[in-house]
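Journal club prep, shared notes

We agreed each person brings one worked example of a sequence with its structure written out as tokens. Mine is N-acetyltransferase domain-containing protein. I'm keeping it raw so we can talk through how to read the token line rather than staring at a rendered picture. Sequence first:
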Amino acid sequence: MTDTADGIQPKATHEPDAQRYVLRVGSEIVSVVDYRVNGDRVSMTRTFTNPAHRGKGYAAQIVAFAVDDVEAAGRAVVPMCWYVAHWFDEHPERVALLAK
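Then the structure, token by token:
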């Protein structure tokens, strides 16, 4: 992940109890992906980036982290929000992870 102007590296985490993936810079949440699990499918329902941090690539970073985690769990992604669908358009090498 890319360092910020302050040299702080963003940190991605999975919060399964909240059904979300979170990207933080320091203690500040800068981007989130919410999801729901249905069997072997993970529906990514919402992506949000703090308006003060838009345009810095944080949404792409947290979606990539989430997709990697879903892949490691042997599940497939159902993109329910426009940004996740867009991310897969931009990363055609990952489309095998989309639910059929």
